[in-house]
């Protein structure tokens, strides 16, 4: 082999080694709002993989073989938690090989709320279940009630922008540990994203101020983080669990209550069946609104999270006050 050929071979090897050393980590996320937060943190460094695209609900999704490969190759996996992505819990115990798995409901600074009907108080969740065998990152936050199991918690944590800010900062630290070369970029991006949520929250609060305290009905009791952050009244739920239809007695009670209200508002979601909602609204002469807490009508990416909150606020206002 000539000297020039040897130099070329060495140069190619070094270039490949350096490229591998500085390649963006392979990051996997589950739902669109979380994907958007991770995308904001990663910025130009790389793009996270979204497991649940399309109109699939994390409550009813099934695990697919194609998703297993993403998990197996991942350096980091971010998810909300087993109370939300129920289809994924067992797979995260066995499939990822070298990934750090970050459960956002356990992230430092994230406030969780109990499912309504289970407890009547807010708390910061202190995780008590057995740790998984692989490299999960469990933050220690010990405020609040330690006796609440994860199954009693409401998993829609991203609907509070203060939680989204805390999630971004936690994501940045996780990625910084995996990719030290870009650590400061992740941290700076997370701070920028968190700062952008303050004017966004003020904008949403101003839009919803006029409907604060007004009664409304929801097909899926999924919005309490949003409601509490922006001063909305607690709704009358058609169902707490989207996987089960309410019983006949509950439906009769809802019909009576909606019939007593003046032009009642019932909020549904894109992925939920509309037959019951349509029937309730038709019987009461009310309004049917559609709220999209998963951002399914938006292109995945950094801009989705802000668009999701703005659209939710507009949908709430339009349905509740008839605008």
TrEMBL record:
Region Disordered, annotated ranges: 112-148
> Which Gene3D superfamilies would you find in this protein's record?
Nitrogenase molybdenum iron protein domain (3.40.50.1980)
Q: List the Pfam families hit by this protein, alphabetically.
A: ZnuA
Domain of life of the native organism: Bacteria
Q: What is this protein called?
A: High-affinity zinc uptake system protein ZnuA
Say which family it is in.
Belongs to the bacterial solute-binding protein 9 family.
The organism is Pseudahrensia aquimaris
Stretches with biased composition (Basic and acidic residues): 134-146
Show the InterPro entries listed in the entry. Answer: Bact_metal-bind_prot9, ZnuA-like
Q: Which UniProt keywords apply?
A: Ion transport, Signal, Transport, Zinc, Zinc transport
- Hey, what's the signal peptide range on this chain? 1-23
